[in-house]
Amino acid sequence: MEIVPFPSCARKATPLDLGFETIGNATVICHDRGPLLATDPWLDGPAYFGSWSLSHEIPAEQRAHIGACRYLWISHGHPDHLSLESLDKLRDKRILLADHYGGRIRGELEDLGYDVRVLPDGLWVQLSERCRVMCIADVFQDATLLVDLGGHLIVNSNDCGDHGGGALLRSISARYDSSFLCALTGWGDADMIHFHDESGRRIEPPVARRTPLGPGVHGLLSYYGIKRYAPTSTMHKYQRADSVWANAHTTPHSEFGRDFPRDGVHECLEPFLRYDLARMSWSRIDPRPLPDVALPPEQFGDRWSDELEQADVARIRDYLAPIEHLRTFLGYIRFKVGGREHVFDIAPEHRARGLTFEVPRGSLMSAIDWRIFDDLLIGNYMKTTLHGPWSEPAGNALYPDFSPFLKFADNGRSRSAAELERYFRHYRRSGALGESPAPGHGEFLAVAARYG
């Protein structure tokens, strides 16, 4: 493969000469004779309109290591991975991004004055003498980063599942005797689970089953041909008074290795660790857990009593109208704000199927104006009711027709059928849109096939 070099940069020596650390929600700090690269640095502040906080503090030592890095890599635009409050403290870094259609993150970070470089998809890029990286963009505007650190492979797939790029990843991991996977696993609260039935009762989410994670983690390692799993990307808790109910469904750290098969080949490591690749040994970091709180929504600009203004209704209509895919399956969307209902007709021929979102005005209008509607779903304080012939919420009824296509509209800037055709052509050409065993992926491919 082609190797695209970056300028070399001198480093001060640190005790970890070659290795990596995991800390925070999804941060991996790679060391080559000192801190070199940190991924998805969420250091401070809330996410998802104040709904999420970090589960543990980031110790001073790891903060210093992140601060000493030359490079940052941002996997995608969700605020637990792209934290503007955190990036503002790291303005001297070069930010590395995936080559995503639409280029939204690149454009907005450059407008804010950051030094940004888009990594060529599927090519190795040299960062230092013993470290090179490869980025694989995903059709859902997420990405995987492969890090070759002194001949050891670290696969940081964070929230990114296999939507077609798994074959490339398996072919690369097969060349390494020493490999690590840093990926989102868990019971599944890091998505929309706040569904209600039409009588207003909350529907118990599938995460309540508390399925042991170990067999699934082992299956991931076996599928990708990777030796060790380092838990990451699920180290959060809920802190808004209207979302703390979801803390019952976050994943305790003791669960990652539960029932993990001991086969002498694969290993499930602990969260928050320092791995010394020179010695092939690891140690715990043991960050301090942050306290449980239940902060008022008003602290984040949300008052449930606030009603929509006439101009708000027009802005919501202007946001929804260009998203043509909604007209292929959805009759209406109802927003219940401040006790008043506002119905937005989508497609009369599908009037039997609709959605009701009960949500505070402040974060709703921020999501509309900033084009980050998916953040409302993940915050899990907005109440969602399905009307008509949807699949059961346990099967993630908003996938594949609703949630993904709002991401394509917001981040991929692809709202019309013609724009979606170009969008999917881009990812088919890169190999990021193909067959995979991911649950529901075949269903998604059938929907995407409508666009050529």
Q: Could you outline the blueprint of secondary structure elements for this entry?
A:
Layout: E1 3-5, E2 18-23, E3 27-32, E4 35-39, E5 52-54, H1 60-68, E6 71-73, H2 84-87, E7 94-97, H3 104-111, E8 115-118, E9 124-128, E10 131-137, E11 143-149, E12 152-158, H4 166-173, E13 179-183, E14 195-196, H5 214-224, E15 228-229, E16 236-238, E17 267-268, E18 273-276, E19 281-284, H6 310-320, E20 332-337, E21 340-345, E22 354-358, H7 361-370, H8 373-379, E23 383-387, H9 403-410, H10 417-430, H11 441-448
Parallel strand pairs: 1-9, 4-6, 6-7, 7-8, 12-13, 13-15, 14-23, 15-17, 20-22
Antiparallel strand pairs: 2-3, 2-18, 3-4, 5-16, 9-10, 10-11, 11-12, 18-19, 20-21, 22-23
Description:
The chain is α/β, with parallel strands linked by helices. The chain folds into two domains: 16-284, Metallo-beta-lactamase, Chain A (4-Layer Sandwich), CATH 3.60.15; 298-415. It contains eleven helices and 23 strands. The chain has an eight-stranded mixed sheet with strand order 1-9-10-11-12-13-15-17, covered by helices on one side. Strand 11 (143-149) and strand 12 (152-158) form a beta hairpin. Helix 7 packs antiparallel against helix 8. The longest helix is centred in the C-terminal third of the chain and has 14 residues, at 417-430. Mean pLDDT is 93; it is low at 1-14.
